[in-house]
Amino acid sequence: MSQLGVPELLIIAGVLVLLFGAKKLPDVARGVGRSLRIFKSETAKLRDDDDDAQPAAQPTVQATQTATPQPQPVAPQQIPPAAPVVSAEEQARQLEEQAARLRAGAGQANKQA
After folding, report:
1. Residues 6 or more apart from 85 whose CB is under 8 A from it?
2. Angle at Cα 36 formed by Cα 30 and Cα 40, nearest 5°?
3. What's the helix, strand, coil split of the chain in %, to 5?
4. Is 0.85 topped by the overall pTM?
5. CB of 56 within 8 A of CB of 48?
6. Are 103 and 111 in contact (CB under 8 A)?
């Protein structure tokens, strides 16, 4: 694969300006920068976790002689029952009623103003 020169980079920059517009390019660049920063920190954490796990994976003679008892598993928590399943038609009807109430409330607010 050939390397990108100045003319190719200018063409790419021009296409980006046409696609996103000059006003949105700083926002896009800021978002990409944040994403890369998060990605970098997460990969560093994964490397640190791997480094921490490797010494622990190599048991020593002393560790096997003084083994500690394993903790007992915790009993699972009870999950409350889920709300009753509502059909799509019922959901649509509820949303229409809510929208009608909101419109009525907005109409009253406009009359008072």
Report:
1. none
2. 145
3. 70, 0, 30
4. no
5. no
6. no
